[in-house]
Amino acid sequence: MAVGRFLLLLLLALVLARLPLIGLPLDWAETFFHELSHGLVALFTGGQVESLRLHLDGSGLCTFRGGWPFAAAFAGYAGAPLWGLAIFRLAGGGRILAGALAVGVLLVMLFWVRDPITLLIAGVLLTLFALPLRWRPGGWLRSACEVLGLAVMLNALRAPTALFGNGIGDAAELARMSWIPASVWIVLWLAIALGCLWSAWRHARTLPAVR
């Protein structure tokens, strides 16, 4: 992939993520992967997920019992950019990737969604991920998946900055559990998001041109 094409996709993801209405599903996607990361870590450490909520303003909440609360609290902001990087790196899979994302959203809807607003938002994400399955694969499909991955990473880079100085959220919870200041956790999450974008850049330089 040419450097110019990567920068173009990055700019497109940045613009789309900031557009009214159009950018909202991309914001929901980042929140979905954020809350999904909380839930999966809680589940894998022996806990039980009670519900996953997504709100129209782009916020969300994953409620769980048991497991390792510290790891689950850290996983949200750390996991979202990793999901974005995975989508970007697997974009060549096109329809397989789209199908896997759609199935993932559907499973969350079936097992963890308890309210109509989350059901509506998850339905929008399910439609967004499933739409590529209706068309033949091609270079545009890979580009669309790459833009989605980049948008998730960019939103994951922006999201933790809202935690500076507000005394609430995952950073404050981690500070309470570890005695390490919330700002340290925020900077760490920003570093992870930047590292994911850097990894995407390096990966893009090894890819052949899209035809």
UniProtKB/TrEMBL annotation:
The keyword Chloroplast does not apply. The chain crosses the membrane at residues 68-88, 95-113, 119-135, 147-168, 180-201. Keywords: Membrane, Transmembrane, Transmembrane helix. It comes from the Bacteria. Coiled coil: none annotated. PANTHER family: OS02G0221600 PROTEIN, PEPTIDASE M50B-LIKE-DOMAIN-CONTAINING PROTEIN. This is Peptidase M50B-like protein.
